[in-house]
Structure formats: structure tokens, C-alpha cells
Amino acid sequence: MTGVIVASVLLLSLGAAWLARVRSRHMSVETLLVADRALPAPMLFILTVGEIYSIGSIVAFPAGLYGHGVSYGYWFLGYLLLAFPVGYFVGPAIWQRAKQYDACTLPEVFGRHFKSVAFERLTAWACVIALVPWGQFQFIGLRSVLDTMGFSATPAAGLAGCAVIAFAYVALGGVRASTYVAFLKDVLMLFGIAAVGVGAICMQYKLSGGHADIVRPTLALPSGSSLVFAITTILYQGIGFYFQPSVTPYLFTARSAQAVRKAMIFMPLYMLMYPFAVFATIFALRFLPPLSNPNAVFFHVAGVLLPPWMVALAAAGAVLAGLLVLAATSLNIAAMMTRNIAPKLGRRHPKRAINLAVVLFLVLALVATAHAPAIMLTALNVSGYIGIQFASLWFLILTGWPASARIAGLGLFSGAGVAIALFASGVSLGGVNPGLIGLLANCAIVFCPLWRGRSAVHVHTKKDLL
Amino acid sequence: MPTFPNRRAVALGFGIPCIAIVLVAPFLSCLPLSVFGIPIVFVWIFAWFPLTSLCLWLCERLR
After folding, report:
1. ipTM of this complex > 0.85?
2. How far apart are CA A396 and CA A113, in angstroms?
3. pTM of the shown model
4. Residue A89's closest chain B neighbor by CA?
5. Residue-wise pLDDT tens digits, B7-53
6. I need a labelling partner for B39 at 20 to 30 A (CA). Which of A321, A365, A398, A400 fits?
7. In this complex, do B25 and A204 lie within 8 Å of one another by their Cβ atoms?
């Protein structure tokens, strides 16, 4: 029955992607990549939460809480919650810059602002390096969900099917199709998490003798260095969240700066699903035998508390979450490959070139998942230290600070280098996130007053910025 | 065109949630207190989901 329900939901999602295609008056490259910059606030909200709350919310968050206790949950919830106020203030300005430069990809904003084609190409490579492990990570998450659903016998076939569906979303309607599918995914994911959470609350109440007493915490409390790591990571990721190449392009799809602001106001409310995930994890810790694989904790609790058809719907929501991020990431990578890295390839038939690049990425990511998952997880850790370093470029653009492309590039690569070197060397920093130290080094370089006199970049007046 | 936010809006929309998450929550996370089995720091953060939206909504009203 699980297979039938999941297959039905996937068919429905393809129907939603088709609807997006039908409703589009035309299908240009701009439609494919930035939905013609026409999404109103509600659709931008659905697209953004659809992409932000990925498969990690239903698999990794309960697993991390189960394995690492309070410090993990504090970091995860804290950085997401801090990201939205930051997005409220910087999001509209980012949208404005993308529109001003008529940019469909991040490197186009950087290249046109710093007036350097070489810098555009360089940042495109850096974006691709940061994005590939993130897209590939979705395959690992999808594999985990497929295993939970009992499809572990033929993982390659299951993942190949996922790749085909992700490609179908891109080919049918690009980022607009993602918005339509995100609506279905959000409904299922919210339903799944709420159902498991409510089931856990009811069962805990029943098992604790019919009275909901105040009990001893079952999650490990944070130690000194783990708390320092949580705080510094919240600052690093919360402030840098909307500057990452995996997140910023969604802002480009908005109809107006006002739409970005309005969407941001309601973003934190979507987090109201997390209390249910916390209840489910605490139920597993208190009442179920220890699990050897923490990644399975959410679906294990769901299997104990819910009928199979409800578990199947929750699993379908998780699969859709993984597929959506996979589709959007592959589209993002393909756009940069064909527009910024090798523009000659996509000059004659840009849409065909993008679709071809999407297929190429999906096939390579699938092979990497099958043959080198451990290496790719290390790559994901490293890519996390690269993505947020793009914040310094946005700081330069949004403040109009007169730095040249060379200085901006030096800061970007120095920041990423410092963060990766500190991470790889294992030097004790008292729990401070290496990425934050890298970002501080990065900003110190790009904002160094020594370069001001030598810069040839146009200095924006305050009027330009406002 | 987006207008640059004034200080009052930044304090309300970013400063207050930031203090709640980065300054207050770490102290709560070390307390061995819980409500219905949920550590007190999570109860605090959960309360800030709607409160953060409220702060941003008030910011929008201030514009």
C-alpha cells in the first residue's frame, strides 16, 4: 500500500508541474529560471518554505535531536529563526539588485556589479562547488526515506526514478513548477509531522498514567563548547542564510520588493511544525528502545503510532521535499554552467542546453551517491563553509563599498580557505564555528580601507541604494 | 524601490528576536527545567516563532 500511495502522490506532483506549464503564457529562459520575476508574496512564500524546509526537517532534525540533544535543536531552530529577520531587511535589496542587473543567476549579479566577465565565471565555479554537494545530499536523504519505506532492495532504481521526476519538474515548468509542487509537499509534510507529533503527545499522556506531569528532560543538556558552537553557528548561518547560492536565487522570482518583505513576515510561522517533531523525538527517547540508525527515528515513531496509510503520506511528503530541492538545485547549477561558465554552449538553444546540463548533473550525482556517499558527506561539510562566504560580496554590493573584483575575489577565497583549513586541521577553537572566523577574515579583506583609493568600481550614492 | 529601514525598525525586527535567540536562549538551554518533557529553551524558542512574525509585522506597519 505504501508504494501505491507514494506513487499516486508523485503522479499528482507531476500533474501540478504540468499545471504550472499550462498556466504559463510562454516558456522563456527567464520563465524557467526566475518565473519571469512575477511571483506574488503567497507564491514566493510557498516556493521559499518549500525549498528551505527540505528533507532535513523530517529526517535530519529529529535524528540530530535524538543523537546530540538540546544543543543541536537550539542551533537548528535558532539559525532558521534568525534568518527570517535578516531576510526581511536584506531580501528586498537583493531582489532590487537582481532586477537592476537583469540577472537570472547569482554570478550575473556579481559579474555585472564588479564589471568583470572573469569574476562572473570565477564566482559561477565557486557557486557550483558549493551547490553540487547540496544537490547530491538530497539523493542521500531520498535513499534514507526509500530505505524506511522498504525499497532498500533496489536503491539505484528508486533513485533513478527520483532523478527522472526531478528532471520532469524542471523540464515542465522550471522554478514555477517547483512552486506548484511545493504546495503539495508542504501540505503533506505539515500533515505528516503534525500527525506524528499529536500521536506522540497522546501516547505519552496515556503511558504516563493519564496525567501530563512535569518530567525530567530526556535530551542531553549542552556543555560549554557545544553551546559556544551552537551560538556562533546560529550567528554565522542565521546572518548568512539568504546570501547562500542555494537560497538567494529564490528571491529573484518575486514580483516586487514588497512581495519579498511580506513573504518574510510569515516565514517564522511555518516553523510551528517543529514542536511536533520535538514531541515525536522525545517520545522515542522515553518510550522506545534505542535505535541504531538515528536517521530513522521520525519514521520509526510514525510506524509505531500511525496507521500505514498515514505513514505513507508522510513519507511521500519527505520524498517530495527531497525532489523539490534536487530539481531546483540542478536547475540552478545548469543555469550557471550554460550562462556563466560556458555561455557559448547555450547561445543557440538556451533551454535545451539547460535541460541537458540538468540531466548531466543528475546522472553524475546519482553515480556519486551510489559509489562514494562518504566522500560526498565530507564535501557537504566543506561546501557549507563556502556558500556563506558569498555574504561578503553581497555586503559590498548592498553598501556600495568601492572594492574591485580582485579584492572581492581575494576576500571570498581567503574566507573559504581559512574556514576549510581550520575545519580540516581540527584545531581547537573553543567551539567557535570555523566558518564564522572565515567570514570575519573575508570581510576584513574586502572592507579594508587600504584598497579604497585603488578601486575602479563605481561608488553607489545613498540615493542609488535606496 | 526598497527604502533603507530606520533604526527603530531594525531594533524591533532584528534586534529583539536576535537578543531572544542569541543572548537569552543560551542561558535557558543550560537549565534542567522542562514543561511536559520539553526543555525550557525549546518552549522559549517555540514562543518566538509567532513573536518574530509579530515583530516583523510591526516593522512593516512602521514603514
Report:
1. yes
2. 10
3. 0.88
4. B5
5. 888 999 999 999 999 999 999 988 888 888 889 999 999 999 999 99
6. A321
7. no
